[in-house]
Structure to design on (976 residues):
């Protein structure tokens, strides 16, 4: 009997998602018993041509991580879409843009200029910058994929069936999602797999330690305080995004006394993660005097990086307005 | 929802209010082109009976399940049109108002642009109404008791009226005696009535004392209020009086008490003991120990012939249930800081209230106006002390009663001491209404001199005790200096101390100056915005005695319209928790200004729960809820998103 085929691919990502998949450890063997992996650039030697040769719809599920930043990404994900019954956005970058998506706060030109000319670690006296096409001295034409004006989450490029959240998704979430995908008992299209439909607080061992009213007088960054690991971090002034973030990670960061940064993304009813996060956080600042409020909120040095860390390209903001106009 | 929306759009001309600026016919034609709109019509006054009939007919004829009325603000007629829906058998909450009057025709003049905007507003309303859900009013039983906070004239008159209708009244007074500020006032008018403040209090108290329907709790303060309109759960603390009902008013205790403190009833003109009777006609007629000044020397205990004194009395907790609450917590007179207009620097500078005590035959001087044994000849009244921003410490508002009260007292002095020279320095004379203006005219006839100041007058107390009042007279534009034997400061009213504590417990708003805010200054002047809470007397701002009693009776009658009901209905546009999503993160709980949300734990799972009876539909929790679990009926994210999207995409 033919085993279901699975493809795994990476776009604009850090490689952490692959790490997480490898972290399935001996479960990888179970996976290989259950499916044929037909494409997995990080670990296997299949080429793109191999995928191109597969009949359309022959892959049961493609798990794609990373956002879409290059023309190459676009080509491959469109190919995988054609060849797959199901396309799954794997990890925060694929689902909402992730950390690389924060680059949408700058134009492509600004980014290239900085990266190839201005960054303090760059030494480029000849002012060389990558070109899309170049005739090499030997006569051959060399090509590079195009950098898109901005990074897009997967579902703005191809139709996405399911999402697996996390930066990266934990092995536990990954395995649960794979089980669901292979069970044949598929949830509604657009569902998030492997995680909870409630926020992290539901899963958090510290939730019970909250006082009746969760209000804070001051904001502290993690390095400014030695957090009491037995007490809700939010009530200690740490900007924990647990309340606004989908649960299912097992509260791993919290258990290490680090506040949630929101990598599991929003819950189903939330339209804009960063907006919701800012709204919730602003609500609990316990001052009525405007100046005091400004003083406390002024301690959030990088609101975009805090509230939109994983979701800027998928948000209502998308990015900096100048980028959108171009 | 299952059922396909069948929407009727009804566009109102509002005479020419809308039709003068918006091309109504064009809006109707446009509405017909919108998705799921089955019927669109216009009428000159949609809120009129024939207008409502058009809607009702439309609902029946076209089997509509949603209605949009494009008309005035929902504050105006949402209720009217909801009733129309209900009468036609449709759930009244399947209505959306497109406000094309206040938000369109009234604020624009360009007919073409206004018409285009009206179309967008209608399109948005259609988008929202498609997703509205039918809702049921929230109903619960009304507790027939009422608690009144404050035993001054407003509270007393309200208690009298409510008890007369057979309702149980809990009358709570923080002080050891009822009567409030009015009990300390002298003659309330110059002529006609020789009534004093205490007489009014006695008259009102007659109906209250020994009334089986009225339960008076003096020395009692509010601790907490839970529940909501129709059923408040109230906790009180009754502070010890240290003297019980066996007290026969013999006064032996006060004779032996070694502690003397200023007598507040006489505005500090005399002293009282630590054990004292607040005043002669005080109710309850019992002595009381002021624990702040008592040294527990036990001298009083030794001499009391009836063993009425118990210094070990403890505070007592009281729990009550009431369907309504009335706040009649009154005011405090403005007390000038030492040095303001010479106050506190000389016994020749007194407040208007101190003057009233002196002019009272039962007051500390038996009605004689004498300072240091002699009758003052030159008497200068300075008005607006503590009001109209006269000094940096003053409040910005007009205290309303001081003009008439000042002139009345000036006339009383003039009657008694015709040779007195009386000057009234004012910013403006506000003797409004039917009676008080005559006082002003009479004062002129009696040669009481009025002078207008702009900058606060300077009261110069020289080391030899003589006083000069200097000011720039605005009418004659001249610097004037008056040697004064007596300076009377017409002080205004300020919000009572601790009112913030009370209003926080009851959840009533206040203005910047601290007086409590009415639900609507004109339309609902004796109700708070919190349902089931009524406001009477000077707690909402300066009033004279007549006005205080009036507002007491008005608040009582408003409260009766609640208490006579068997059940109350609350608009169901409340917040509601989706338990499938709620993680019990508790963020919402600290947000709710009405204490309507609590965490419930069921099978070890924490979820938030909204008490619909307490929810005031402010939406704060909805905005704060990090997971989207909290939504407000008729304003759900999905409904609003559809509405907003329709603003941009047509």
């Amino acid at each position: 009997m033919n085993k279901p085929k699975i493809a795994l691919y990476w776009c604009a990502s850090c490689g952490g998602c692959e790490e997480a998949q490898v972290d399935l450890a001996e479960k990888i063997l179970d996976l290989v018993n259950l499916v044929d992996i037909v494409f997995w650039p990080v670990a296997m030697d299949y080429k793109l041509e191999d995928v191109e040769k597969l009949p359309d719809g022959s892959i049961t599920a493609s798990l794609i991580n990373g956002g879409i930043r290059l023309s190459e990404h676009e080509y491959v994900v469109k190919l995988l879409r054609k060849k797959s019954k199901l396309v799954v956005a794997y990890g925060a970058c694929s689902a909402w843009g992730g950390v690389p998506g924060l680059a949408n706060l700058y134009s492509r030109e600004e980014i290239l200029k900085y990266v190839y000319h201005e960054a303090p670690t760059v030494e480029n006296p000849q002012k060389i910058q990558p070109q899309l096409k170049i005739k090499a001295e030997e006569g051959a034409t060399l090509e590079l994929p195009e950098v898109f004006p901005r990074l897009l989450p997967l579902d703005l490029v191809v139709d996405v069936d399911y999402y697996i959240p996390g930066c990266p998704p934990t092995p536990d979430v990954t395995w649960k999602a794979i089980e669901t995908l292979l069970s044949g008992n598929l949830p509604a299209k657009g569902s998030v797999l492997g995680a909870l439909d409630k926020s992290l607080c539901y899963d958090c061992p510290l939730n019970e330690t909250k006082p009746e009213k969760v209000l804070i007088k001051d904001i502290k960054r993690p390095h400014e305080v030695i957090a009491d690991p037995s007490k809700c971090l939010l009530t200690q002034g740490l900007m924990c995004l647990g309340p606004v973030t989908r649960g299912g990670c097992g509260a791993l960061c919290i258990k290490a006394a680090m506040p949630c940064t929101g990598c599991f993304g929003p819950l189903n009813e939330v339209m804009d993660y960063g907006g919701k996060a800012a709204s919730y956080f602003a609500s609990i600042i316990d001052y009525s005097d405007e100046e005091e409020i400004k003083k406390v909120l002024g301690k959030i040095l990088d609101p975009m990086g805090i509230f939109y860390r994983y979701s800027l390209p998928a948000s209502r903001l998308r990015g900096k307005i100048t980028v959108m106009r171009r | 929802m299952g059922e396909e929306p069948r929407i009727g759009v009804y566009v109102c001309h509002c005479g020419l209010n809308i039709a003068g600026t918006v091309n109504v016919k064009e809006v109707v034609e446009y509405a017909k082109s919108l998705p799921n709109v089955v019927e669109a019509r216009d009428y000159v006054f949609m809120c009129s009976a024939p207008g409502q009939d058009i809607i009702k007919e439309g609902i029946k004829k076209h089997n509509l399940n949603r209605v949009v009325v494009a008309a005035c603000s929902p504050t105006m007629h949402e209720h009217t049109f909801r009733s129309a829906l209900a009468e036609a058998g449709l759930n009244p909450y399947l209505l959306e108002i497109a406000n094309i009057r206040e938000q369109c025709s009234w604020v624009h003049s360009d007919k073409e642009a206004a018409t285009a905007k009206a179309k967008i507003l209608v399109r948005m309303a259609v988008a929202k109404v498609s997703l509205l859900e039918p809702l049921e009013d929230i109903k619960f039983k009304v507790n027939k008791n009422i608690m009144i906070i404050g035993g001054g004239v407003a509270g007393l008159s309200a208690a009298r009226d409510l008890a007369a209708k057979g309702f149980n009244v809990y009358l709570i007074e923080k002080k050891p005696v009822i009567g409030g500020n009015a009990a300390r006032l002298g003659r309330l008018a110059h002529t006609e009535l020789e009534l004093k403040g205490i007489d009014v209090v006695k008259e009102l108290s007659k109906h209250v004392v020994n009334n089986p329907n009225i339960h008076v709790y003096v020395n009692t303060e509010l601790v907490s209020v839970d529940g909501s309109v129709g059923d408040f759960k109230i906790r009180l603390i009754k502070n010890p009086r240290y003297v019980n009902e066996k007290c026969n008013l013999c006064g032996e205790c006060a004779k032996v008490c070694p502690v003397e403190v200023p007598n507040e009833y006489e505005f500090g003109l005399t002293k009282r003991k630590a054990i004292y009777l607040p005043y002669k006609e005080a109710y309850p007629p019992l002595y009381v120990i002021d624990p702040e000044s008592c040294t527990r020397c036990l001298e009083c205990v030794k001499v009391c012939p009836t063993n009425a004194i118990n210094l070990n009395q403890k505070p007592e907790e009281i729990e009550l249930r009431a369907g309504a609450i009335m706040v009649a917590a009154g005011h405090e007179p403005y007390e000038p800081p030492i040095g303001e207009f010479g106050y506190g620097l000389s016994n020749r500078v007194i407040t208007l209230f101190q003057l009233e005590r002196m002019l009272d035959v039962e007051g500390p001087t038996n009605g004689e106006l004498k300072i240091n044994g002699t009758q003052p000849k030159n008497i200068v009244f300075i008005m607006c002390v503590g009001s109209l921003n006269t000094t940096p410490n003053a409040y910005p508002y007009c205290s309303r009663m001081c003009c008439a009260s000042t002139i009345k007292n000036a006339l009383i002095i003039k009657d008694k001491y015709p040779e007195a020279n009386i000057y009234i320095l004012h910013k403006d004379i506000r003797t409004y209404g039917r009676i008080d203006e005559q006082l002003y005219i009479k004062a002129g006839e009696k040669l009481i001199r009025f002078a207008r100041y702009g900058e606060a007058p300077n009261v110069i107390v020289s080391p030899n005790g003589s006083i000069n009042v200097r000011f720039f007279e605005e009418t004659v534009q001249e610097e004037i200096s008056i040697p004064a034997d007596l300076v009377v400061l017409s002080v205004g009213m300020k919000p009572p101390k601790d009112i913030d504590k009370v209003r926080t417990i009851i959840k009533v708003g206040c203005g910047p100056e601290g007086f409590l805010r009415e639900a609507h200054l004109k339309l609902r002047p004796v109700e708070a915005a919190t349902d089931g809470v009524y406001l009477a007397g000077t707690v909402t701002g300066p009033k004279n005695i007549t006005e205080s009693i009036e507002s007491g009776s008005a608040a009582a009658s408003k409260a009766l319209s609640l208490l006579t009901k068997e059940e109350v209905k609350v608009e169901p546009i409340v917040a509601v928790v989706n338990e499938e999503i709620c993680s019990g993160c508790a963020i919402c709980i600290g947000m709710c200004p009405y204490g309507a949300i609590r965490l419930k734990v069921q099978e070890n799972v924490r979820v938030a729960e909204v008490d619909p009876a307490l929810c005031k539909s402010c939406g704060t929790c909805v905005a704060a809820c990090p997971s989207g679990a909290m939504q407000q009926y008729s304003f759900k994210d999905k409904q609003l998103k559809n509405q907003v999207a329709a603003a941009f995409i047509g």
Summary: Chain B has 17 helices and 32 strands. Chain B touches chain A at residues 578, 580-587, 589-591, 605-606, 620, 623-629, 631, 637, 641 (CB under 8 Å). Chain B has five domains: 7-135, 146-239+315-331+495-563, 240-314, 333-494, 570-633. The domain at 7-135 of chain B is CATH 3.40.50.960 (Rossmann fold).
